[in-house]
Amino acid sequence: MKLSREEVLHIAMLARIELREEEVEKFRNQLSEILTFVEKLNELDTEGIDPKFSVIPPENVLREDVPGMSLPREKVFMNAPETDGEYFIVPKVVKK
């Protein structure tokens, strides 16, 4: 499935990344290849297969929760469309 230039730019906008002109074509090709692969996966017959099935056994599922280093607040908010300095501001999505 070949993506259009506009679709790549739309995906970049949703991801909040700016692409140089030469990157648009590069990502257009890469994303198109990924979608072609996904289309092939959609052709597989998965009837009767548990959606949670994995050939790899779960490992470290319940690891200890240890706090680690985090990014400075300024860096975290750098690409956010809107903040109040402490929190992300997002559009209301729940109706009363």
UniProtKB/TrEMBL annotation:
Its EC number is 6.3.5.-. The lineage of its organism: Bacteria, Pseudomonadati, Aquificota, Aquificia, Desulfurobacteriales. It is an enzyme of class 6 (ligase). Keywords: ATP-binding, Ligase, Nucleotide-binding, Protein biosynthesis. Heterotrimer of A, B and C subunits. SUPFAM superfamilies: Glu-tRNAGln amidotransferase C subunit. It comes from Thermovibrio ammonificans (strain DSM 15698 / JCM 12110 / HB-1). It catalyses: L-glutamyl-tRNA(Gln) + L-glutamine + ATP + H2O = L-glutaminyl-tRNA(Gln) + L-glutamate + ADP + phosphate + H(+); L-aspartyl-tRNA(Asn) + L-glutamine + ATP + H2O = L-asparaginyl-tRNA(Asn) + L-glutamate + ADP + phosphate + 2 H(+). This is Aspartyl/glutamyl-tRNA(Asn/Gln) amidotransferase subunit C. PANTHER family: GLUTAMYL-TRNA(GLN) AMIDOTRANSFERASE SUBUNIT C, MITOCHONDRIAL (PTHR15004:SF0). Allows the formation of correctly charged Asn-tRNA(Asn) or Gln-tRNA(Gln) through the transamidation of misacylated Asp-tRNA(Asn) or Glu-tRNA(Gln) in organisms which lack either or both of asparaginyl-tRNA or glutaminyl-tRNA synthetases. The reaction takes place in the presence of glutamine and ATP through an activated phospho-Asp-tRNA(Asn) or phospho-Glu-tRNA(Gln).
